[in-house]
Design a protein that fits this description.
Elements (H helix, E strand, L loop, with lengths): L10 E4 L6 E4 L18 H13 L1 H12 L5 H12 L3 H13 L3 H4 L6 E9 L4 H10 L5 E9 L2 H4 L1 H7 L2
Parallel strand pairs: 3-4
Antiparallel strand pairs: 1-2, 1-3
Helix pairs in contact: 1-2, 1-4, 2-3
């Protein structure tokens, strides 16, 4: 798994062993909008995110954490902020570029194993159009589980609901 295939929400692969499923982090297939595809961000928005990271990473980290975790979950925001701040600026910027500028849509057609796509209903980063795109392109008869929540990282914002989706 490469870094650009991060855990935003998951696609869970059923390896033929009943309810046991393993994380298959391909949820973020592309953040950048293109003709006929809505990834959630325009070029100018991604440029602004990268500029914010580069110009004041220590300020960007808690703002991003409160956005993607949930502003009312102070402990998780604090822990995620601490995790982000442990990265050197160069590493964080390189990771952000890889994540926000990657395009992994071609991989979806090669997924032939049945899987479950988990999407947060009020995901502030990934629009539901990405989930629909994945559902349409994955060959392995995917199912979609919507979790009623805010944030972005289902394993942080709604860990109990996300774990129920994976059995």
């Amino acid at each position: 798994m490469t870094l650009e295939r991060v855990w935003v929400t998951y696609a869970m692969v059923d390896g033929g062993k009943g309810k046991k499923k393993m994380p298959f982090g391909l949820k973020v297939v592309r953040y950048l909008n293109t003709d006929g595809y809505e990834g959630g961000f325009g070029t100018a928005q991604i440029d602004q995110i990268l500029l914010s990271i580069e110009s004041d990473y220590n300020e960007w980290a808690p703002n991003f954490a409160s956005l993607v975790v949930h502003p009312h979950d102070a402990l998780s925001v604090k822990m995620f902020t601490k995790c982000l701040r442990r990265m050197r600026l160069e590493a964080a910027l390189s990771l952000a570029r890889a994540v926000f500028l990657s395009d992994n849509r071609e991989v979806l057609g090669r997924v032939t194993t049945p899987c479950t796509i988990i999407q947060i209903t009020n995901d502030v980063i990934v629009p539901s159009s990405v989930t629909h795109h994945m559902h349409d392109k994955i060959q392995g008869k995917p199912t979609v589980e919507m979790i009623e929540a805010n944030g972005h990282f289902s394993q942080l914002t709604t860990h109990l609901a996300a774990s129920r989706c994976v059995g």
